[in-house]
Structures are given as structure tokens and as C-alpha cells.
């Protein structure tokens, strides 16, 4: 089987895909990017925490205009996963306003990104309706 | 005691397409008109602050000086996204409050006619064809469309629907009706980039950019410049009766950035810093939101205007939808908002916007707004947001008779 790598550092592949946040050891603020220190309290120590795979749609937009090479329309969203807000696209749903409701339940899933010249497959994530 | 500060002269160019003029031409036109309006010359100006995101130079202000007067004064070249113009003005005001000079000028300009989608990064090159990790998310491919969106229309669409999620009632049609208002207002503004009235049907059936924002619900990319001359109260008192009569008091000048809020790095929080700027501004001015005769707020998208009714406390918390539906923000309403046509219709030449909205307020306070004059206007508020974020709020008052 071809090698698979995650689209972003905070996505962990395996049996079930998981998102792993950096949580400030002092104030528990959560981040998904490489950190220098905590934006909330300034502390510099973080622990890795797994974000719940299920959540609700906090807000969304159906984006129909994008730079060349980005397929449209797509559903951009913020999903509330047990109190942690996550940015991601809604997938496995027709991108039409009547199909997306605020507060709808969704769960994390993987989305193929493509393979590079060495045959390594990159894998992204999205949220699909439960 | 810090100096009180006044707008002595202010101007904006027509917003729209200026094919034969570059950024310097437009900035020089606005600056010359502001100086003439103020009744002073470059020789009187002690500090210059300029901004232009498309100006192509980190010393844009000096390029401008070379066309309007190299007097050796300090120049501050500022950038603060869509709050750049307000930031330039804020710098000139701070210099006066600090007692460093009596007269300052702020200029903002942009050439954006025909510019496409703003805010979304382009596609990264494939490199040698193998995945490599980049940026602070360690991404192997561009994230636009793969992990939500960074495009401005998409981000502000989510900001508007988030408000709807919290408080209810924010439908596609409601947002379209906000754009309908601003386009209707612009028909009275000869300097607006667009001054055609749109029907609600036209707005809702136009090209969808990012649901629920269609094209006429998005700010209009255009060319334009605006400039303001500010003066200390002590210097103004020695000026002519005409200058004193037309001067507009800067009762509050506030700039904020976004404080940490849960989730603010996932979707920008434009609410907290706006509410904070407004709170500080009302306190500085000793004026409450109920006393405002008109407001120019940052309607970069129709979805943004709704949330700022609440953030600027023009309505009770959570009641922006009902506030709009009451007709309060139409030009004949209780608190007219964006009688210029706003960014959606007047246009949004980024660095000019934060001065142009103050020009609009001053125009009404001076009683010089012609067909679109808000009768008897005495107090106004101008607000801008630069995503990232920076928020500028200015409260302006008519000179006492
Ligand atoms: Zn912390």
C-alpha cells in the first residue's frame, strides 16, 4: 500500500483520523499551528490533546469564487467539536444552502488530496453529516 | 492635559476607475484638496502619515511629498489592512495630542479597479513534485478550499451567519436587504463608484460569491484617495472665523487590535475589538450611541454590516436583525448607517476608506452634503475594520456655533 501523509501537521492518520491540538498547559487555550507561546496567557508549554471527532456546525459559507485551481463551490465551515472550534470543509453533502443548517451534527472524515511524483498520497480532512 | 484635535480640512476623490491616474496622482489630488479645504499649505503641516497597500513602496509618503512639497517633516508610512487610512489619521492625531506639532495630514490611496478576489492566497508551486511541509500548519498543499476558506467574502459570510446562529433571524434575504439600502443610499452620492439602485431580486439573483453574499453584497474594488488635515485646538483658536466654523471636533479617536478569544484563530473575531473600540470611543467623547445622527461603518460585506450594528451598540445586544427591520438604518431612520452608499456601493479603495468615511461624516456635520444631507446632523461615528485585525473608531462633532 502506498505511503500516506496528512495534509497538515495537526491531522493524525491511522485507524480513525484524529485532529490533535496544542493546548496551553497554563490556561488550556487550544491552537492548531506551530506555536511560540500562548496568545491568551503568554506561557510557552503545550500538551497535545485529541479533539472530539464529532461536532456541530457553528457557521458556514458556500464559497463560489476562489483562486485558479480551487474547485468550487465548496462549503467552508467552523465546527464546534466538544467546545473546540475547528476550521474545515463540509464534505459528502451537496453544496447548497438548503443542505446545510447551523447546528447540524457532523463528524470528521478523510479526503484524498492526491499523490506526489514519488507516489506518496496526501490525505486531508473534512466534516460529513452524521 | 492633552490637546483637543479638530479636522480642519478633508477631501476625497471620486471613487471608481481612474485609468489615467496612478496612486501618487490620486493621493496628490486628495492632499491638495484637503489643504485647500483647510486653508493651509504644506509649509504649515508638521507631520504626514500615509498609507497605500497598492502603492508599491515602503516610503510612499516620501513619493507623495516629492509631488506636493518636500518640507523635511517626519513621514509615517503605515499599513493596517482595511484600517490603514484610520491608522494614518490616528498617527497624525497622536502627534498633535503629544504636542509635537500643531497641524498634521493623513492620506490614504488605492488603485484597485478591476482587482479580483482579495484575501485568498494563490496556489503554491509544485516544487520538485514531492510533498514538502510549509507554513505554521505544516501543510503539504494550499489549504484554500481544503480546510475552509481565507477568502474575505467567505470569512465575512461566516461572521454574519455566526451572528444568525446565536440570535436567529439572519436570512439570505435580510442580508440582501442591507445591500439594497446601501445601494439606494449611493444614488445621492456623486463620488460613489456605483450609484445605481438595485432591486432586492437583482441583488439576490446576482452572481453568488460566497453564500449568503452575492456580488452587490460585497465591497466594490475601485480606485480612490482621501486626505484629512488635523489641527490642535490651541492653533485653531488663532485661525479665521470661517476655519473655526467649518472645523469638526475629533471627540474620540480609538484604535484597537483583537484580544484573545476562544476560536479567534479559527475564524477571525471582528466583534470583540469593535465593541472595545466603540466602548472606549463613547467614553472618550462622553457621547452615547443613541446620540449619533449618522454612522459610517465598515460594510465590507452585507453580512458584516449586521454584526456591527450590535458591536457599535446601535441596538441592544442580539437585536441587530430587529433593529435593521425597524428601518432605523435607512437615511430617514433613527440612526442612518452608510448614507454614502458604504463600501458596497461607494466603493472600498482600502487605505482611503478609513479617511473617506470621516469625510462623509464631516460633510454632514458641516451641512455641506447637498442632496443627501442628514438634516441637523451634529454628531457622527466612523468605523473601520482591517482583518487580522485592527479596528478604528472616530466620533466627530460639529463645531459649536
Ligand atoms: Zn495560555
UniProtKB/TrEMBL annotation, chain A:
Protein name listed in UniProt: Uncharacterized OB-fold protein, contains Zn-ribbon domain
Entry-linked Pfam families: OB_ChsH2_C, zf-ChsH2
Species this chain originates from: Parafrankia irregularis
Domain ChsH2 C-terminal OB-fold: 49-110
Ranges annotated as spanning the membrane: none
Organism superkingdom: Bacteria
Positions of the ChsH2 rubredoxin-like zinc ribbon domain: 16-46
Database matches in SUPFAM superfamilies: Nucleic acid-binding proteins
Amino acid at each position: 500500500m502506498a505511503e500516506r501523509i496528512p495534509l497538515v501537521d495537526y491531522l493524525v492518520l491511522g485507524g480513525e483520523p484524529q485532529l490533535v491540538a496544542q493546548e496551553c498547559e497554563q490556561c488550556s487555550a487550544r491552537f492548531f499551528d506551530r506555536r511560540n507561546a500562548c496568545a491568551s496567557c503568554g506561557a510557552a508549554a503545550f500538551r497535545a490533546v485529541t479533539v472530539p471527532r464529532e461536532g456541530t456546525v457553528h457557521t458556514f459559507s458556500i464559497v463560489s469564487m476562489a483562486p485558479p485551481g480551487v474547485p468550487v463551490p465548496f462549503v467552508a465551515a467552523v465546527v464546534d467539536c466538544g467546545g473546540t472550534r475547528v476550521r474545515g470543509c463540509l464534505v459528502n453533502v451537496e453544496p447548497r444552502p438548503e443542505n446545510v443548517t447551523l447546528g447540524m451534527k457532523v463528524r470528521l472524515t478523510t479526503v484524498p488530496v492526491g499523490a506526489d511524483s514519488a507516489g506518496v498520497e496526501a490525505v486531508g480532512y473534512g466534516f460529513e453529516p452524521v | 492635559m492633552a490637546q483637543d484635535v479638530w479636522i480642519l480640512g478633508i477631501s476625497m476623490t471620486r471613487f471608481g476607475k481612474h485609468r489615467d491616474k496612478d496612486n501618487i496622482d490620486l493621493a496628490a489630488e486628495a492632499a491638495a484638496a484637503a489643504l485647500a479645504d483647510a486653508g493651509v499649505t504644506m509649509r504649515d503641516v508638521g507631520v504626514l502619515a500615509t498609507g497605500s497597500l497598492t502603492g508599491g513602496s515602503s516610503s510612499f509618503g516620501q513619493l507623495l511629498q516629492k509631488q506636493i512639497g518636500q518640507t523635511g517633516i517626519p513621514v509615517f508610512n503605515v499599513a493596517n489592512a482595511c484600517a490603514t487610512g484610520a491608522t494614518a489619521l490616528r498617527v497624525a492625531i497622536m502627534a498633535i495630542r503629544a504636542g509635537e506639532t500643531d497641524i498634521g495630514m493623513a492620506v490614504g490611496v488605492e488603485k484597485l479597479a478591476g482587482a479580483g478576489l482579495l484575501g485568498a492566497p494563490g496556489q503554491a508551486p509544485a516544487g520538485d513534485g514531492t510533498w514538502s511541509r510549509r507554513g505554521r500548519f505544516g501543510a503539504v498543499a494550499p489549504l484554500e478550499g481544503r480546510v475552509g476558506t481565507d477568502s474575505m467574502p467567505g470569512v465575512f459570510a461566516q461572521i454574519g451567519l455566526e451572528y444568525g446562529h446565536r440570535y436567529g433571524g439572519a436570512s439570505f434575504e435580510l442580508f440582501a436587504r442591507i445591500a439594497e439600502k446601501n445601494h439606494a443610499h449611493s444614488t445621492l452620492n456623486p463620488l460613489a463608484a456605483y450609484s445605481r439602485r438595485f432591486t432586492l431580486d437583482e441583488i439576490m439573483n446576482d452572481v453568488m460569491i460566497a453564500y449568503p453574499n452575492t456580488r452587490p453584497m460585497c465591497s466594490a474594488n475601485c480606485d480612490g484617495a482621501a486626505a484629512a488635515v488635523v489641527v490642535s485646538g490651541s492653533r485653531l483658536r488663532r485661525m479665521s472665523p470661517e476655519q473655526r466654523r467649518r472645523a469638526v471636533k475629533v471627540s474620540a479617536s480609538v484604535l484597537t487590535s483583537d484580544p484573545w478569544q476562544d476560536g479567534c484563530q479559527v475564524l477571525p473575531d471582528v466583534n470583540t475589538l469593535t465593541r472595545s473600540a466603540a466602548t472606549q470611543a463613547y467614553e472618550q467623547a462622553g457621547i452615547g450611541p443613541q446620540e449619533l445622527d449618522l454612522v459610517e461603518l465598515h460594510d465590507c460585506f452585507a453580512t458584516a454590516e449586521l454584526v456591527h450594528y450590535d458591536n457599535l451598540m446601535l441596538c441592544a445586544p442580539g437585536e441587530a436583525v430587529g433593529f435593521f427591520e425597524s428601518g432605523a438604518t435607512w437615511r430617514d431612520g433613527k440612526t442612518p448607517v452608510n448614507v454614502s452608499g458604504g463600501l458596497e456601493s461607494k466603493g472600498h479603495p482600502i487605505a482611503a476608506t478609513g479617511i473617506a468615511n470621516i469625510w462623509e461624516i464631516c460633510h454632514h456635520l458641516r451641512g455641506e452634503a447637498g442632496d443627501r444631507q442628514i438634516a441637523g446632523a451634529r454628531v457622527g461615528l466612523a468605523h473601520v475594520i482591517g482583518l487580522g485585525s485592527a479596528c478604528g473608531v472616530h466620533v466627530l462633532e460639529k463645531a459649536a456655533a
